[in-house]
């Protein structure tokens, strides 16, 4: 891997007050630069076939961002070469070359590691296709700076007005993927899981890098699953959709099957780990009893139907023996689902991780 090191950052190491952060959304760039001095926000841009838009994206990066890591993911267009030839390139930009293509997830994780090595504390992932409005960067980083979240992501579905530019097939597809992601990750308050405009606290990103996160298009959803295993707090941030002349490398027909399989696998592993191995609570009992009763009632009823003579009417006792376990089983499973919805993490873990780091360095 070859690196181009940026010049020293002009940002100072001053502290940031929570009251100031709460009003970031309404400030101009100069005000944000004063408020976010010392926040050490770094942007990670995975680059693959990105020559057409990457310079435009870099030109829009606000002044208060401390640094940028552009990860050339063995790009066939040699995006890294384009950046290195720019004599007037933003001095905050570092170019990281990957010798082999690792997919968007692999490129982002490599960028996280490089940005943290250079001092980044909040790492923002921005795509190279210029679809993301960088005017919303402060909206992404504020919940993390306030200690209210470990991971934030854009959500294009919070307003009907935000959906205007989005193709209708994408709206439907994202809605289906969002429900599947709620089941597989346990983050029932999260929507639009494939949105790649995200921010993560560096100590949490370090924990994620040690896990087997999907390296390709399932990355954004899979990282939510792994954040759930850490009990990290994830939060949506309303951000409108933008579409221009960029061409997506994602083909829906190629990912539907693999996505469905991976969602199902993550759901089963999450339930087993969260309710049977790492904990055993009332939801566990509801799941076990509910599944057993539902299975018994269904099998009993189907067995009687299969063996009955044509024209026989089921006695009341047979109906109750089949229907009552099914009804109770469904109710217990719904109660377990309600428990799972209410069991979403609410306390950020990065202050704890940072405290452990400070104690370890003393």
From TrEMBL:
Residue intervals passing through the bilayer: 287-307, 313-334
InterPro entries: Glyco_trans_2-like, Glycosyltransferase_2, Nucleotide-diphossugar_trans
Keyword hit for Nucleotide-binding: no
Superkingdom in the source lineage: Bacteria
Keyword terms, alphabetized: Membrane, Transmembrane, Transmembrane helix
Residue ranges constituting the Glycosyltransferase 2-like domain according to the UniProt record: 43-208
Stored Pfam families: Glycos_transf_2
Record flagged with keyword Membrane: yes
Gene3D superfamilies: Spore Coat Polysaccharide Biosynthesis Protein SpsA, Chain A (3.90.550.10)
Name listed for the protein in its UniProt record: Glycosyltransferase involved in cell wall biosynthesis
Record lineage: Bacteria, Pseudomonadati, Pseudomonadota, Alphaproteobacteria, Caulobacterales
